[in-house]
């Protein structure tokens, strides 16, 4: 078998041959004219001229290859007390039937559809039905509030919305339809139809114009066939947090995505077709898109759709039960889930009740894997614990331990080596490449491999300004870190205003816009501070308007509610500090980076451009009072 270095070198020295070979695993209606179209950098396009259908590759071809009876989806929902298995043949029929219903309602290739659904198999059916028709889906995570949904409706301009009547979140029953109605009410763009999957525990009122009942629609629909699309046609738009209130619509194509995800299942995750793969995330995040839906299904693995939490549904043994009951070979989740389990069951007593003999590897991503959580998980489970680093933008890992090629010894704190196809470098602020061990900005030399973002939906300029302009010829990841002398990459955290709360990527800029709109607030800054369970949480530093008479507890409650109602409960905004001034440069720029360093307990240097140094001391003091360690160099 080829070793990592050989495969890696091949992928960078001759990417076209490398990915053309990988693309042979996908069924094409028409092969590509060029493997990599580099004619319009930085807009590189993979498999230009090729035609395929992602749904065909993920569903129909397994049935045609004789695997119709195999299990495609295991739906495990402790919150509704349900375990249900769906074969590939059943999945194909359901997807074709829903695609037929969507077609009947006017959906066609190139349209967009928003999917706002919890973790039920119908969410996957919805995504695949869109892919079947060449319709571009945009899934919005259920934890986002109506305002955030409205922003996405206006930007994606969906012809329809597919939603469920509701979800169960832990012990709470949540109605989704009123949120969808509120979002449509707010948005300028009005989708023509809202198709609602009615759940047993909560029936939505379908009284609005354009409301349709999913189950009834599907019953009489004529099944639809797969529609050939260009490799470079969009498969989906997934909005992710940038540094402002306007999220970025990451655009994923069909061809490169199918090739890369198929390749990753063996080479990164060491899976075989027929194995059971479980990504304990949500279809609303990129992890869900890539590794609940497309990756496992493209490769012929059974995917687990888990509607529950790591703790409380019903206990901290939930993950072990699912692994044992469904013979899961690889589990992929965020470190925060393990911190939650550890908090409730530090001795791992629940594990003793289950037989995990089929379980081979734990994969973690979404936030930095702290060494404590790494060691705890490793000792408890006795299987390799593999950290890997990636982003919504890339759809698959940039840095990982390539378990299907060569397993490297783990260095806690590092996600191991650059993944095949990614030329990862560390640059200083002037664009000079740094020496091993020196910390700087993590970038990837262009072209990015297949599967990574083609552009930002309806915003080519932002694609360039966000990722491509600071270091021409490179993609700027927004993360900082270093590579050691053995080539291990250490990702230390974001260098911009994006934070990770329980593995959920959110924008402090978006929160600032909301906090700043409070009638008593003159100006504010929201920064991420460390949290032992969720990794990070937001903290608002607020300057009151002159003459404002506002008590901090009351203000904090009001701001928390405003952020919750606007962004959603997942923002977890619960802490506000009132300060006299915010630290600024002489030109008036708020020194967010320095405040972030203070809050992270890192050493910070007094910036030479600071207008009033006493300001930072005041903030450091305020943070100390609420329990954050502060060091100044
Ligand atoms: N729909 C509606 N509300 C949701 C939601 C959804 N899909 N997901 C979360 N929320 C709500 C929660 O109910 C909670 O509301 P509350 O403030 O009223 O209690 C709030 O958003 C915060 O949710 P969360 O951050 O998930 O916190 P939690 O305390 O409920 O659970 C963990 C903490 C660690 C157990 C949980 O975050 C988890 O399982 N994380 C796993 C990692 C993961 O899935 N990462 C995603 C990317 S890989
Ligand atoms: P998202 O786009 O939601 O997947 O979030 C991507 C961001 O999460 C990255 O830019 C990192 O800041 C962080 N992240 C994801 N995985 C890791 C990891 N393994 N180690 C450190 N940070 C990570």
TrEMBL record:
Domain Acetyl-coenzyme A synthetase N-terminal: where?
Answer: 4-58
Q: Per the UniProt record, which EC number(s) apply here?
A: 6.2.1.17
Supply one GO CC term from the record: intracellular organelle lumen
Question: Domain AMP-binding enzyme C-terminal: where?
Answer: 511-589
Q: Does the keyword Ligase apply?
A: yes
Q: Which UniProt keywords apply?
A: Ligase
Q: Where is the AMP-dependent synthetase/ligase domain?
A: 65-446
Q: Where are the transmembrane segments?
A: none
Q: What class of enzyme is it?
A: ligase
Annotated GO molecular function terms are: propionate-CoA ligase activity
Family to which this protein belongs: Belongs to the ATP-dependent AMP-binding enzyme family.
Recorded hits in NCBIfam families, A to Z, give: PRK00174.1
Matching PANTHER family: ACYL-COA SYNTHETASE, ACYL-COA SYNTHETASE SHORT-CHAIN FAMILY MEMBER 3, MITOCHONDRIAL
| Name of this protein | Propionyl-CoA synthetase
Q: What is the lineage of its organism?
A: Bacteria, Pseudomonadati, Thermodesulfobacteriota, Desulfobulbia, Desulfobulbales
